[in-house]
Design a protein that fits this description.
Helices cover about 35% and strands about 15% of the residues. It is α+β, with helices and mostly antiparallel strands and about 500 residues long. Among the domains are: about 105-255 and about 395-445, Nucleotidyltransferase, domain 5 (2-Layer Sandwich); about 260-380, no CATH class. The two termini are about 35 Å apart. Residues about 1-30, about 95-100 and about 160-180 have low confidence and may be disordered. The structure holds zinc ion. Zinc ion (ZN) binds near residues 359, 366, 367 and 370.
């Protein structure tokens, strides 16, 4: 906490460092703008897994970036440092003081390369393509089109766009505190073919939140589900003969599971009278009910049934169980495993103190908790968003963490904010909202499609086995291409130089 205060003080001390306007009246930005941030990310990605804070200082001092930032000299080390922490980089010692890019974290890369990218590339084969003089057309072999909707939230600030928030990486957009002036959070969807998600009658699923207007200023899990349902209703009505995919980032509100979903986390090894899960109590509007202090009201419920070999398995002893004292009790992990036919002789409840760190690597049979955790029904628990999608006949795809280059809505926010900045300052929230919606709606479709192409180019680069550093280099070199062309021998030399810096 003290460190946060110190950083905040340092920030206030050099708050004048990032001007909002260029002297010439052109558009410029701060490191907190998505478009500037994307440029820096791209640069760092090319440097690979390790880089120093000086790399950002150096990059912001290049002619192109100085012009973009509207500055005559580069940013300070502390500004660059804050930006890194804020954007999910964590300091790691690797010979000398360097940062580690969450982008190339082992689990993130694994998810990106084995799940997200193969899926997106497969879907891309079934998307409509723009053909000159023809319009949007499906490849001849495809009979049912795929449409991919990218979701995201972004916050616009009325006065000061240089605010720094300390947020856990991946926590999503945070609201501006009420006392510090108005802000507006927008959540919406885009697709490459049409831009913003809009029905022919103007229907949309956009969410606009004002900080402190009876809302907390950010989207809760139930807001996310509500918005998703609206979006699905529109796409199913207007594009009923297509398969719709919705891409969300890894924010906790998007990943939330049912309260009663299977989880081995807090289970006891032996029978327990107390083991239950805390479930939200809903009010008459179907939203979580809160008490006088604004805290969610929870009720104790049983965990949902497991599923083993196609059979449901209750984790609680039946009401007519032979041992009267155990009736209705939680069975415990050992008993649950035994009922599934496992030998639990000599297995402890859990290896060591930390379930996350103390089990031997790659083992699934070391302790009762790990064994149950590794069971298919525990592994395949769907998020609430995925469950709802299944019910509504559409699909959800989660982006790999830290890969904002794969979500083209990020660039749409950046583009809109650059335009928002040159509008006259507004006094009322109503005027601010009008301006924000105006700049969002005025992004040319052609521009959005260029952003979509860039994201697809990145996905294609990853699909050819390139790491983050190589993908960034290739995507930059082949600006404007939908897919990466065959690489030249010289390209391969450049790629080779970046072989070990990533993965
Ligand atoms: Zn274990």
């Amino acid at each position: 906490m003290r460190r946060i205060k110190l950083w905040a003080r340092q920030f206030i001390a050099d708050a004048t460092e990032l001007p909002l306007y260029q002297h010439g009246g052109g558009v410029c930005g701060s490191l907190d703008d998505e478009d500037v941030g994307n440029e820096i990310r791209l640069e760092l990605q090319q440097l690979g897994k390790f880089f120093t804070v000086e790399d950002i200082v150096r990059f912001c001092g290049t002619t192109e970036m100085l012009e973009r930032l509207g500055r005559t000299k580069t940013v300070s080390l502390s500004t660059a440092h804050r930006w890194l922490l804020k954007n999910g980089w964590r300091w790691a010692r690797h010979g000398r003081a360097q940062y580690i890019d969450g982008h190339e974290r082992e689990d993130v890369v694994k998810y990106r390369d084995s799940i997200y990218i193969p899926k997106i590339m497969e879907l891309a084969q079934r998307m409509r393509r723009w053909i000159e003089d023809v319009g949007w057309a499906l490849p001849p072999s495809v009979h049912r089109a795929v449409r991919i909707w990218f979701h995201d939230e972004s916050t616009f600030y009325a006065h000061d766009r240089r605010k720094v928030f300390w947020a856990e990486a991946g926590a999503g957009a945070l609201p501006e505190p009420k006392s510090e002036g108005p802000s507006l959070m927008i959540g919406d969807f885009v697709a490459p073919e049409v831009g913003w998600l809009r029905g022919p009658d103007g229907e949309n699923a956009r969410v606009v939140f004002r900080a402190g207007k009876g809302r907390d200023g950010y989207m809760t899990n139930s807001d996310i589900l509500e918005q998703f349902e609206r979006a699905v209703a529109i796409v199913r009505k207007h594009w009923p003969d297509e398969d719709h995919y919705f891409v969300y980032d890894n924010a906790p509100t998007h990943l939330k599971r049912e309260d009663s979903a299977l989880s081995a986390a807090n289970m006891t090894k032996g029978p327990s009278a107390k083991f239950h899960v805390a479930v939200d109590v809903l009010n008459e509007h179907g939203r979580p009910a809160v008490d006088a202090d604004g805290k969610k009201i929870k009720s104790k419920e049983r965990m949902a049934n497991g599923m083993h070999n196609g059979q449901e398995q209750s984790f609680y002893f039946p009401d007519d169980y032979e041992i009267v004292e155990l009736r209705g009790w939680f069975k415990g992990t050992e008993r649950i495993l035994q009922e599934r036919g496992y030998d639990t002789t000599g297995k402890k409840s859990q290896c060591g103190k930390s379930f996350h760190n103390d089990c031997p690597k790659d083992r699934t049979d070391c302790c009762c908790r790990r064994m149950l955790y590794s069971e298919p029904d525990f592994q395949q628990v769907l998020s609430q968003l995925e469950l709802l999608a299944k019910k509504l006949g559409v699909s959800i795809l989660y982006l790999p963490k830290f890969h904002c280059e794969l979500n083209f809505i990020e660039q749409c926010w950046g583009y809109a904010k650059a335009r928002y900045r040159v509008l006259p300052p507004t006094k009322s929230q109503d005027d601010m909202e009008k301006n924000v919606l105006k700049v969002l709606d005025e992004i040319p479709l052609e521009t959005m499609q260029r952003f979509a192409t860039r994201s697809l180019r990145f996905a294609h680069a990853y699909s050819t086995g390139l790491n983050g550093a190589q993908a960034a280099w290739v995507a930059k070199k082949y600006r404007g291409h939908r897919i990466i062309p065959d690489l030249t021998p010289l390209d391969l030399v450049e790629i080779g130089k970046r072989r070990d810096v990533g993965k």
